[in-house]
Each structure stands twice: as structure tokens, then as C-alpha cells.
Automatic annotation (TrEMBL):
CDD domains: futalosine_nucleosidase_MqnB. The gene is mqnB. It is an enzyme of class 3 (hydrolase). The keyword Cytoplasm does not apply. It holds the Pfam family PNP_UDP_1. This is Futalosine hydrolase. It comes from Streptomyces californicus. Pathway: Quinol/quinone metabolism; menaquinone biosynthesis.
Length: 235
């Protein structure tokens, strides 16, 4: 079975495909374009959890053969100093950090409202193996629909999700679609900026994309081997 990798934008997609070397084959899928290299299909599905979920669902449903693994990949903001700029991160938990409701007592996650779910846990063994291969930190990665732009919001997210390493915008959407297709999911990010007040001059997007390429180059054999053996229920 193949591995589906979903990024937000083409620059992230291209950073992933560079890890495999050579020119990728281009394959059309409904509403998008897949870059295929070896066992990996890499798709730029759009920014935000809704676009990511829709693109992932279309790719999974239209594939001529089932995928064995889905990976949400890209760059993201880090809750520094926990995660330095330019470093890779593997999600131990993929968390919908702003899916829920405000209340006089504060934010209530969707689970506190009595419906839905607010997190997915990738296979722990796969998280450990990819983190070891890529030299990546492992910890919760938060999915948000609105990127954080203040120190107050960054502090609130950390207070609600202690130990969170990174904030991004697509992981939970990818995970939701993968779960509905009964396909395991992983999230792999590289840090481009600190979560907090927006300071574009401090962003290191080029460094983060290079780190994403490096992380995929190191972890690709793990992903391919794990997928080949179909360890869907491996702990």
C-alpha cells in the first residue's frame, strides 16, 4: 500500500518530494494534483482544517487502491523554547485546540459539550520510530483555524494544552478524514516561527522547509517499511 502525504501549500509539498530525489510523477485527482515518488503520493490540499479534510477525503476515496498510511506534513509555529526554530516535530497527539464553545468559565472543547472528539493519537510505535529517525521531538501538535497572534493567546493555548510543541492549521482535518477511512495517521512538522505576536521578520520559512525535507528523507524508510507491513494496530 502507498503513503498519502497532505500539506497545505505547494511549497510544503515540494519540500516533501525533494526528500525522495528525482522528478515526481504528476497524477490528477479530483480537485487537486498529486506528486508521486516511489511509495509516496504528496498532495497540497489547502490551508486550514476544512480544506485539509476535504482534500484528504477526496484523495482517499478516489485512490485506485487503499492507502496504508496518511501523513499531515508542513511547517508550523512553535511554543518556544520547547521547540527551537528549524527543528522537526512528530505529533504524539493531534489536537483540535479551538473546536468548541466559549463560556463564562472559559473555553469548552467539543468533547465537554457532549459530542465529537478533539484529538487523535497516531500509532505510538510509529511516532517513536519516526522521531528517532528524524531526530525530532515528539509531543502534542495543536490544530487551529486562526493562527495565534498574541502572547496572551499563546499562553492560553499552553495552559489548556500543557506540553504542546507546535501550532498548525491542518493536522486535525487530515486526521478526521483518515479516521473515517480507517487509515492510520501521522503528523510531521518543521518549525518556522514562534507562536505569539506576529513578527514576519523573525520567521525562518526557508530553514523550516529545508528541515522538512531533511526529516522526510530520514524518516521515509521508516514510513515505507511500517506501511509495507501494515502495522495498523501496532502499539
Amino acid at each position: 500500500m502507498r503513503v498519502l502525504v497532505v500539506t497545505a501549500v505547494p511549497a510544503e509539498r515540494d519540500a516533501v518530494t525533494r526528500a525522495f530525489g528525482g522528478a515526481p510523477e504528476t497524477v490528477a485527482v479530483p480537485g487537486a494534483e498529486v506528486h508521486r515518488r516511489g511509495a509516496f503520493d504528496v498532495l497540497a490540499g489547502g490551508a486550514g482544517p476544512a480544506a485539509a479534510a476535504a482534500a484528504t477525503a477526496f484523495a482517499l476515496a478516489s485512490a485506485p487502491a487503499p492507502y496504508g498510511l496518511v501523513v499531515s506534513a508542513g511547517i508550523g509555529g512553535a511554543f518556544t523554547p520547547l521547540t527551537p526554530l528549524g527543528s522537526p516535530v512528530v505529533a504524539s497527539d493531534i489536537v483540535a485546540a479551538d473546536l468548541g464553545a466559549e463560556s463564562p468559565e472559559g473555553f469548552l472543547p467539543v468533547t465537554a459539550l457532549g459530542f465529537g472528539r478533539d484529538r487523535f493519537a497516531p500509532p505510538p510505535a510509529l511516532v517513536r520510530e519516526v522521531a528517532a529517525a528524524a531526530g525530532a521531538a515528539a509531543g502534542p501538535v495543536l490544530t487551529v483555524s486562526t493562527a495565534t497572534g498574541s502572547a496572551e493567546r499563546a499562553g492560553a493555548l499552553l495552559a489548556a494544552h500543557p506540553g504542546a510543541l507546535v501550532e498548525a492549521m491542518e493536522g486535525f482535518g487530515v486526521a478526521e478524514a483518515a479516521a473515517r477511512a480507517a487509515v492510520p495517521v501521522l503528523e510531521l512538522r518543521a518549525v518556522s516561527n514562534a507562536v505569539g505576536p506576529r513578527d514576519r521578520d523573525a520567521w525562518r520559512i526557508g530553514d523550516a522547509l529545508a528541515a522538512l525535507t531533511d526529516a522526510f528523507g530520514k524518516s521515509a524508510p521508516v514510513l515505507e517499511g511500517w506501511n509495507r507491513h501494515d502495522h495498523r494496530n501496532r502499539a
